Amino acid sequence: MRRHWSSLLFLAATAALLLAACSSGPVRRVSEPSASIQQLTVRADGSWSVDLRLQNYSSIPMRFEAISLEVKLGEHEAGTLQGNAGISIGPESADVVTLEHAPTSVARIAIADALGGNRGIGYSLEGTLRVVPEGSGARSYDIKRTSGLNPVPGLPGVLR
Which Pfam families does the entry mention (predicted)? Predict the structure, then answer.
């Protein structure tokens, strides 16, 4: 009989612990977001249309507000990508915003050279993203990203 009661007490204590653990709700983890160039399209007038991929690594939705990122192509300054994204991105998800950009003349030449030679080109982004995590105040995150773009076959003037 004693054995029966101790087993019941053990099961009741385990159930109480499990219920207490479940009642706390999901963990609210806010992680640093990231940004990368998903696609760069060179227009006939030399300006660029930049599809910027914004990644939310947090466990809660985040509203992306302001973007200010210095762009370099290889060793050439290309100017600053700026804009107001104005989008909310769900937990552990990504979305794309399109920004118009008037690059520096050396950046235009570097892109034209890469496209003309059907070669890739490295790029870097450095600056800030201003985001508002759900239920919290605005925060600015420093962004540093280095990657590369390659010409897209069949799409003249487009790099991914």
Answer: LEA_2
